[in-house]
Amino acid sequence: VDAQIVGFSMSLDNSKSCYIPLTHNDQSVEQIKLDDFITIVKKFLEDPSILKIGQNIKYDFIILANLGIMIKNIDDTMLMSYVLKTGNRGHNLDELALDYLSHSTIKFTDVTNVNKKKISFQDVDIKSALKYAAEDSDVTYRLWEILKIELIKNKLYDFYFFVEKPLVEIIAVMEINGCKIDNEELRNLSNLFSKKIEIIEKKIFKLSSEEFNIASPKQLGEILFSKLKMPYGKKGKSGNFQTDVKILEKLKSEKYEIASYILEWRQFAKLKNTYCEGLLSRESKKTRRIHTSFGMASTLTGRLSSNDPNLQNIPIKTPEGRQIRKAFISKDGFKIVSVDYSQIELRILAHVANISSLINAFKENKDIHSVTAMEVFQVKKENLTNELRRRAKIINFGIIYGISPYGLALQLEISNSDAKSYIDSYFLKYPGIKDYMKLTVSKCRSDGFVMTPFGRRIFIPFINDKIASRRNFAERSSINAPIQGGAADMIKIVMPKIYQFLKEEGLKTKMLIQVHDELIFEVPQNEINIMKENIPTIMTNSHKNFLDLSVPIKVDLGLGENWDEAN
Predict the structure, then answer these.
(1) Residue, of 413 and 19, whose pLDDT is higher
(2) Beta strands, E only, 275-347
(3) Which of 20, 114, 179, 567 is the most exposed place for a label (fewest CB within 10 A)?
(4) Percent of the chain beyond pLDDT 70?
(5) E strand or H helix that includes residue 326
């Protein structure tokens, strides 16, 4: 959003590419005036009858939108590759050029590192810029010729065309929209977290009988395992003791108080540094808003990712995490509206594994975790406690992620044997899930990939690996990928429908953030009722053109002055 254009490269045909210098500091060549450039390229970039091909074209879309040019009719080689080989490899231009063209491209660092100094592209001489940029557009053109045929051959072109391609403009516009944040709220939170960190540090230093740098894994490891002689002391390749979350959780489960405090210290340090300070430092000086970058081809299951800053992993389960969400506010006269799919992954699991009791529970709008608790723990409704429901909820979501008895024992703070009996009785009550898992893993072993209900192909590396730990991880991934991927497909299918609705109705509502199964909007007061009446209906029905699920889809909508209130 804040980037300035330096030049523009394009390839009009295989092997015919050029570079248009605009704002280089190199005065050796006459450059095109920016206004002249805009006048000329705007005509064909906005012409819907001319196809524009790009590699990660969302980026170019945003840069050109800043110049008042809205590209129409696009293809993206990165997304084409992603649909073909999700999970199999990266999808950047250098990798694709090597894979499909056996060609090693000029790297960005080759032209922006001069005499061991990093320079801006504006300072790159025009001849070097020409070689680098014109090659990029030529390689993109050549890749498009190959990838289009590959998609058709693999019967994946429709999936690319109807699910991935329409999102480019939508996500680019979301990034341009950005989010308004309450700077004062974040500064207050930062101070509050600093005080909490100080209090926790004193407790840690008291238990360790000395002060040390808690953020240093080396110093922390020495304190825990050399000085305090705690169990599970294991040195990594660096020669230092391992102090990751798993180790600390183990120590916490065995009632080592210092481990609990260290985990708490890390949580507050992350909230302060990553979220409070991180968000404040990323506010655009131009727009006074936060602009995340959504990764469209970076996850194993088809989900979007969010980077710089990551708005998808702001903690929601702790009161402190929710405080961060309070800092995401609407501008004057607007409200934040959140719409999310209710228990979408469990609904997709019920559909793909064809579990009649779960399907019926969803049809009758019953509380699915209570149903599971009654089935697994063999209790009647009147004897059902909140604790049993909580355990059932952890099991329900754990099963989707292929949880092990050890993992479940850790989450529920119970013995491994109890956890194993819970999982066994779960599969006894829902045999279809066990069958689905076996069939999915077996098919993945022979094909190398799994499919979501909507037709996304997801490759699972290491599914036939000789090393058991890698193979087990791959098996868990193969079980989860069609479910999480199916949920990702659903929200990707609905986003263009909502975007189209907002455009057709001439609404001022803006889509700001997508967090997996949740969409966040900034809505003017006078459009709130329109959103309430229409968006849930669009979200519950959009997938039906692709697939008729055996379970009903439910959507929750909330609104407030900030993101937390809207949840």
Answers:
(1) 19
(2) 293-295, 305-307, 328-329, 334-341
(3) 114
(4) 100
(5) helix 319-326
DSSP state of 188: H
The alpha carbon dihedral of 130, 132, 136, 142 has a sign of positive
Tell me the one-letter amino acid at 442.
S
What are phi and psi for residue 473, nearest 5 degrees? -65, -40
Run of H or E including 520 = strand 518-524
Nearest CA to 215 out of 146, 262, 285 is that of 262
Cα 84 to Cα 517: distance, rounded to the nearest angstrom:
24
Q: Which amino acid is at 124?
A: V
Distance CA 467, CA 287 (A): 51
Q: How far apart are CA 409 and CA 391, in angstroms?
A: 11
Say if residues 307 and 313 touch (Cβ distance below 8 Å): no
- Of the candidates 316, 200, 208, the one whose C-alpha atom is nearest the C-alpha of residue 266 is 200
Preceding peptide of 496 cis, ω within 30°:
no
Cβ atoms of residues 485 and 452 within 8 Å? yes
The rounded mean pLDDT for the chain is: 94
Residue 530 corresponds to which tokens in the numbers above? Answer: 């329109």
Q: Within 10 Å of residue 479's Cβ, how many Cβ atoms?
A: 24
3-state secondary structure of 429: helix
156 touches 32 (CB < 8 A): no
Closest-CA residue to 486 (of 543, 545, 557): 543
**Residue 9 DSSP class:** E
Instruction: Quote the CA–CA distance of 301 and 459 in Å, as a whole number.
Output: 9
Task: Say if residue 59 is exposed, middle or buried (CB neighbours under 10 Å; 0-12, 13-18, 19+).
Answer: middle
How much of the chain is helix, strand and coil, in % rounded to 5?
A: 55, 15, 30
In this predicted structure, the answer to whether residue 88 has a pLDDT above a threshold of 90 is: no
Please state whether the predicted TM-score (pTM) of the whole model is above 0.85. Answer: yes
Burial level of 427, CB count in 10 A (0-12/13-18/19+)? middle
Q: Is the peptide bond before 461 cis (omega within 30 degrees of 0)?
A: no
Amino acid at 112: T
Q: Using DSSP, state whether 138 is helix, strand or coil.
A: helix
Q: What are the C-alpha distances in Å from 543 to residues 273, 492, 498? A: 40, 10, 13
Please name which of 462, 485, 482, 480 lies closest in space to residue 472, comparing C-alpha atoms. 462
pLDDT, mean of residues 351-375: 91
CB count within 10 Å of CB 318 equals: 12
